[in-house]
Amino acid sequence: MSSLKPKTMTPMGRNNAHLTQSICVYCGSGPGKNTAYVEAARHLGNELAANGLGLVYGGGSLGLMGEVARATLSAGSSVTGIIPEFLSEREMMLKDVTHLHVVDDMHVRKQMMFDTSDAFVALPGGIGTLEELVEQLTWSQLGRHTKPIVVANIAGFWDPFLELLAHMRSEAFIRTGLEVGFKIVETADDIVPTIQAAWGRLTPQGVHEDAIAKL
Questions:
Q1: Which of 70, 86, 141, 172 shows the smallest number of beta carbons within 10 Å?
Q2: How far apart are CA 133 and CA 114, in angstroms?
């Protein structure tokens, strides 16, 4: 286990090498009311492993967090858990992950999750999940990274959020040139293929091919 100190985000990059590409999954520390949420978390873990992808997540053993982590581990892929020390007991830190980092605070946690991930997925969750998703959308909107972001709208969970974004757009707070770049999927089956398709449209330097064509 390690404790990291805060650092400045490196745009469109990571500060350490990977043996495999890793997907950061934001999700709830509870299971939710709809059993479809747990099923989606488990299925995503299996799909990550089946495609040779690692998981980066918040380090807990409860709720959807625990489900996706245990499914990924059971299917034979690597799991990196990143958790602030003050949450290690509250979220019942999962100790049997491949790499476990206990960090100083939430800011360090989110920075490290960004640095060690190649794409981001939002499963159903609460305020923390929403905050993490919105932060990545903001960084993307401001041009700080081009990593794919997928909103997994399982059983319509994210419909109210998507309606809010549409309202912001209709009220001209999301304007031309400030679009929010992400993909929406309805099932766990579509998450990994959507990310892989997005990676296919990026060069190794993280620049969209259609942007190069305009040069």
A1: 172
A2: 11
Cα four-point dihedral sign 140, 14, 132, 46? positive
Strand partners, 14: none
Using CA atoms, how far apart are residues 42 and 47, in angstroms rounded to an integer? 9
The half-sphere exposure of 2 on its side-chain side, counting CA atoms within 13 A, is: 7
Pull the structure tokens for residue 91: 């979220």
Residue 25, beta-bridge partner list: 121
Quickly count: other Cβ atoms within 10 Å of residue 18's Cβ.
14
Q: Which CATH architecture has domain 22-213?
A: 3-Layer(aba) Sandwich (3.40)
- Residue 204 banded pLDDT, cuts 50, 70, 90: very low
Distance between CA 109 and CA 105 in Å, rounded? 6
Q: Report, in angstroms and rounded to the nearest whole number, the Rg of the chain calculated over CA atoms.
A: 17
Helical spans, DSSP H, in the chain:
35-50, 63-74, 106-115, 127-141, 159-170, 191-200, 209-213
Name which of 118-132, 145-159, 165-179, 201-215 the model is least confident about. 201-215
Continuous segment of H or E residues that includes residue 78: none
Q: Which amino acid is at 214?
A: K
